[in-house]
């Protein structure tokens, strides 16, 4: 006789950091129908086992709740893995060599795409140009995308796009040029669209493969839930099809793109998305949900397109690359608030963040909604005004500690020492009562690795060991909460995930070393040995 009440799986001999209560640590868990049914000691959990219960002994390994990346472009991460990966390139010569290698395998006339280069990895720190990559091929258009907001393309691609010395800079974009006025292949902000619009859109099969690779990458890092921002209708359809096929292995909150993106949709079409779909934030199930609407107001610091109060270092004026105006923000936020949508808005500059927070606060006062979970995405340099209003209206900060690690040294070049002291101020956000969620924003960074992010939150060091605003360090527990509980709260799923507790979804990560006991410098080296989603082992290192 089958014991229907016995667990499907028990995990024993572990050190489970449950995050359920202060310093709560357990030895074992019992799982049934995809949820934790008991958390406790080895003996009591083993006593629950029945004839059909499987047991896995973890041999003393540390275990944490499944990680929640609150802002990651998972489909693009998968696409990056399918394209030429440039995030580890250390020179322009290496970029060209990788293009030449791909060209030998690619039919003439077909686009060659690479993603993730970072001039900070190059010894001279020089931005690559078409002159660096042109020798790699004369038979293919090439577009190599920086990890954020700048592309370098070859001469073939410039010709296809009709970009020459007479081509004016597009609104809120810049075509970089040689000293003689000829385009040098670097395209910033909206200038990227002059070439990117020529690249064929991915097919349904290509998007499905990108999702497969993206899920695999998440599970490798113990990430079991993500918020995927800024999706168009085709991408949302691809996610639904992937889910329907039974291949979705990571829990998703999808943020439809709304206003402020480099997109061809009209305002009427965008407003229709919010008003006429008949759904709003939170619709879906434990695997696939509709999240907040995604908006964007400015650019970033490294390409000097963030909207700041003061000019970037070496510049004499503030250039407005904003994609939205203040009156538009108020109008859009009001629509979202009326219809039950949360909004997450990209703000990097201090001025941009003030504009967004002011608009949020005004609408929250006019149309209070107790369950609203709006967020500022990035939130590099919050002012005292922004901090006060974010805390008052429960507006979360969704920050990317990966940027501290991978490009922290560029901060001093871009904004100087004084402003760098207020960069992604985790301690300040928490001390002011602002909800804090952490994320990677891959592929706008080198890697989705959450342990790099946790290391950066705790030590505030970049990859060279250089301190970046040390006073903004937070504790290991606070850091881990920002990668677990905070994401669940942001998506109204804290009753389902974020901690290891009876009744919650059985999502967890088994680590190769103890996150709470290793020296600080080892935090970045923590690896995941096993990932469990819904009570099933979905990834094992070395398997």
Task: Walk me through this protein's architecture.
With 543 residues, the chain is an alpha/beta fold. Among the domains are: 9-65 and 504-540, Urease, subunit C, domain 1, CATH 2.30.40; 76-196, Diaminopimelate Epimerase, Chain A, domain 1 (Roll), CATH 3.10.310. It contains 17 helices and 25 strands. The radius of gyration is 23 Å and the shape is globular. The two termini are 34 Å apart.
CATH C-level class of the domain at 76-196 is: Alpha Beta
Helix content: 25-40%
**Based on DSSP secondary structure assignment, what is the total number of beta strands?**
25
Mean pLDDT figure: 94
CATH 2nd-level architecture of the domain at 76-196:
Roll
* Helix-strand makeup class: alpha/beta
Discrete helix count = 17
Q: Any idea what the shape is?
A: globular
Radius of gyration: 23 Å
Q: Might you state the CATH topology name of the domain at 76-196?
A: Diaminopimelate Epimerase, Chain A, domain 1
Strand sequence of the main sheet, in spatial order? 3-2-7-23-24-25
Tell me the distance between the termini: 34 Å
Low-pLDDT stretches: none
The biggest beta sheet reads: 6 strands, mixed
Taken as a percent bin, the fraction of beta residues is 15-25%
